[in-house]
């Protein structure tokens, strides 16, 4: 199928038109003025000029939106060495000289070390680039973290620290190891009198996700759960973290339980959740049969601006390559309300749906290769993305099912799930190309007619109505009867 032809289809036009409706999660106007505005990044991973440019682009976006502070919740650089850290620091000061706007207004820094600052000197990519172990150790931030912090940022390094900005408390915990932050409970005990009670929020940020909260249980790299147990004592805390490099277009990136936990995305690349035809389980060793290579998105840098009001906190998600908004999470400050709990959304979030006129196209069989390079005949199923509307969310991914025609029923004989290759971008950019899923001819029925059924899925298990391909193969009964099923 020619993608140019697809773009001219009425289904694609309908998809684009649907994007003009307000985002489904919009909750109304905040009460009062914005009290605080914070630009948020994580996993910047400056490693070369291209990554540095992404960082500068994001900082300029924050500057143009007049943020009061910038949070960087770990992994500012990739290899954990001094020269790279210096490059990243210079990038910061090129946008905010002396931590200030041109008029001298101060911009607060809420920065942390992540695992790459502390351990990156011994990662495979760094070893391959710098074989001299003595050189790496001599220049590794992890061995000199206090001095490096104070030399570059001109402030005292503390494993856990508290800053108050415009009357709001922020607690940041530097990365120690992948499991825990030593001394965190003791720190909270020392500062307990400075923490607000009731509905006024305060903010905690660390590099890995608190275990069992945002994006869980599917993501790798969560901590050992001690932070979750501690934060659960504070219903008005909002925790911010990263490390998993999970897309903030995935609605599981915000979680509410005993407190609120938010995944902040990543600036360098996005790793999609495993279990799809075009993804893989991160660090898994098993060889999973698949006709498609896994997607990793290096050109979809994500971040957000957090706006704090008296009655709510807004997280305005953003993608910096095409400068598109990714939607807003509207979090009430009233701690008795938890609209972003997974359980609430499983029950109440509607299924996504395809735009009117959406169609499924299937290519003719042609030679191809599976994920591992094995040559075979393949067919590709194409269909449009399912955007958000006034009363339905954007699809997270899609179920593609091969349905075999029986005498009076269609039976599902093979099911795959697939992400749109542009699910990390804004909806208009995603709608420019079709979603696709590849099948080996050997996977398809040989002796019975079949069709492809495609269903859009939300992040919480709900599937929308299917659209169908034409029928393939010889029919055992008249086609009019099959079409009526």
Topology readout:
Layout: H1 3-7, H2 10-18, E1 36-41, H3 49-64, E2 69-72, H4 82-95, E3 108-111, H5 115-119, H6 124-129, H7 133-139, H8 145-153, E4 160-165, E5 168-173, H9 184-190, E6 202-208, H10 226-231, E7 237-242, E8 254-256, E9 260-263, E10 302-308, E11 312-319, E12 324-332, H11 342-348, E13 361-362, E14 366-369, E15 375-383, E16 397-405, E17 410-418, H12 427-430, E18 435-440, E19 450-457, E20 467-468, H13 479-483
Parallel strand pairs: 1-2, 2-3, 5-6, 6-7, 7-9
Antiparallel strand pairs: 1-10, 4-5, 8-9, 10-11, 11-12, 13-15, 14-15, 15-18, 16-17, 16-19, 19-20
Helix pairs in contact: 3-4
Mean pLDDT: 91
| CA gyration radius, whole angstroms | 24 Å
β-sheet strand percentage: 15-25%
- The third-level CATH topology of the largest domain is Purple Acid Phosphatase, chain A, domain 2
> Span from first to last CA?
28 Å
Q: pLDDT below 50 for ≥5 consecutive residues: which ranges?
A: 1-26
- Outline type: globular
Main sheet makeup: 6 strands, mixed
* CATH 4th-level superfamily of the largest domain: Metallo-dependent phosphatases
What CATH architecture of the largest domain would you give? Answer: 4-Layer Sandwich
Number of DSSP helical runs: 13
Strand order of the largest sheet: 3-2-1-10-11-12
**Structural class from helices and strands?**
alpha+beta
- Binned, the helix content reads 10-25%
Beta-strand segment tally: 20
Name of the CATH class of the largest domain:
Alpha Beta
Counting structural domains, the number is: 2
